[in-house]
Hints:
Layout (H helix, E strand, L loop, with lengths): L15 H13 L4 H13 L4 H19 L13 H10 L9
Helix pairs in contact: 3-4
Amino acid sequence: MSRFKTVHPLMVYMPLGQRARVKIYAKKGLMPVSQVVREGIEMRMATGDRYTAGWNDALKEAAKVIKECPAGQMKFPSGRSFSEMICDDVINLERKLTND
């Protein structure tokens, strides 16, 4: 069976510097660049994985630092602090950990 009956082409745009790093990484790992991209996509779409858990942990740590920053304690007329408003945006970046 032809390989083109089991795969489909996909164009990926990336900055030149990233392209160079991906090519070097693939060459060191003795794999095609397309495999690196496929694995990255799978990792990103995976649920309940360490990547997603690490991402969410990093966001929680960032929110903690923001809340503890003295400059963020400035209050707006609404009664909410600058830190609270920024933390709301940071927490919205969390990814779901589900087993779909």
